[in-house]
Amino acid sequence: MHAVTKSTLVALLITGLMAGFQLLGATASLAESPPAEDSTAIGIDADPSGNTATVLGARDSCVSISEGDSFQVDVIVQGVKDLLAWESYLSFDPSLLEVTDRDVDQLLGSLSNSELFDVSEAVPSGSGHYRTGAANIGSPPQGGTGSGVLSRLTVRALAPGLAPLSLGPIEREAGVVQPTLTSVDISRIGDGDGDGFFDGPFLDATVAIDQPCPGAVGANVTGIGNLPWWLLAALALGVLASGGIVLARRR
Question: How much is the pTM?
Answer without folding.
Answer: 0.73
